[in-house]
User: Fold these one by one.
Assistant:
Number 1:
Amino acid sequence: MFKFKSIRNEDLILDQKGFKYLYDSYWEKVFAVCYHNTDDAELAKEMTQSIFLSIWERRKILRFQKSYEQYLVRAAKLKVAEHFRNQAIRKKHLDHATENFCDAANYTEEDVNYSLLAAALNLLVDQLPRRCQEVFKLSRKEGMTNIAISQKLQVSERSIVFHIIIALAFLI
């Protein structure tokens, strides 16, 4: 199969040259983990690119506790799990929507009610502090996980949970 040379954390600085070395050394391994779990080459490539993009974007704040290889393999497994979780959520919502689909007259009334409710919710969300709004929208409207939000905003996961609790308390 593949042979990989292990890189010690202290031997690699994540500047452009170090990142290129990390990418060249581990791209195939990360791709293999993603492909093995999805059986979809294009999806595995996208996941692999996403993982390395995330590392590059967070290179100044990342601190590796274990080897780069262990970190990247774990990141690949988490990315696959996130994909399947999001896929299951989308399927659940689609199933729920088709299950509760009603005739056109009721649908129109429900659509109007939904639009009014959504507008009222958006007005309330706009009253939240900026960071709280951002976290709430990423969580509830885009369906991102707390971990993904914390990585995107470069804050702790605990901070994300705090912002969601504040937003929900305000909206209730």
Number 2:
Amino acid sequence: MIHIVLKRPEVAGNVGAIARVMSNFGFSKLIVINPKCVINSKEAQDRAKHAKNILKSAKIGGEELLDDFDYVIGTTAQIGRDYNIPRSPVLPKELANKLSEIKGRNVAIVFGPEGQGLSNTEILKCDFIVTIPSIPGKQVMNLSHAVAIILYEIFAASKEKKHSDHILPATKKEKEYLLSLVDKLIGQVTFRTPKEKETQKKLWKKIVGKSLLTKREAYALFGFLRKFEK
């Protein structure tokens, strides 16, 4: 199940427009974290049109609302260079193709506040990030427009016939265990600086997140990595 997560939205009309576009593409689960506007205001409801029910049923709260997701995917207009691992993104169509292979897992797609977007700290907590290419030098895309583009790609990909629905993806718990095994191995390696060690940890978190491992692949890696412990 895919949930749309808005962090600290400032404009109620944007939240309403997002609810509307969610309804257009068949999404219904909206989470709003620490909003800076009134989610069920008249402005939001007027923009939501036929999707007022999505506003009314939206979960509103703090960061704890992200705790139980198997995959947390951030969005950003600010991408980094090659050395900036956390800000190395996929494109919307790539994201859609990846998500079309996942069945039965809870996925959060997280959008930051208008103008500012997600912070570096918030991006570090994501499995990976997605970005929408646009003309360099232009202002950041409107929040509701960005949501619409990403949801369209996911909707379009979901309509294609898939042959892997029987394959189970790894859960959050299995990913965390895999990363704990990797961290143990990293702890046994000598690095020139503490920063190099932290870079390796960030790298492996993004590799595991982007790969969307199946349960079978995860268990095969468990067995392989545990051999090094012996």
Number 3:
Amino acid sequence: MLTHEKLKELLHYDSTTGLFTWRVPTTGRTKIGDVAGTHVNGYVRISISGILYVAHRLAWLYITGRWPADQIDHRNTIRDDNRFENLREANNIFNAQNVRKSHSNSRTGFLGVVPHGKRFEARIRVNGKKTYIGIFKTPEQANSAYIAAKRELHPGCTL
């Protein structure tokens, strides 16, 4: 496992930009000062000694001196924004609560809203159970009610 000391020997992390740069050349193509990492599924991944690491976990190790106990959540939900102020430790439930937009297969295009006849139902999942919020005339009204409930019931919410 990569240590804090070895990470600092190989890379420099700028906590205000979230970028890692190489302190030492690791391959024939890498130069000192080059930005480290490639984008994969929105995340920055950095290869060290043949092992791929996601940059947000490396940032946590770099600043705190320890690996995160569980997951690292991007507060603003932007996967490659690895500024330290944008990162926080989270468990799976807490991390999943930090959702800001509907899934691509949503029938309404609104987070927490489903069609209900000619109206729209707002519902939220709390502790693994669906919780009914109400039926509304418009998807916008249902979404507003959902967001209010999300702010109250989801401690991981950053809306």
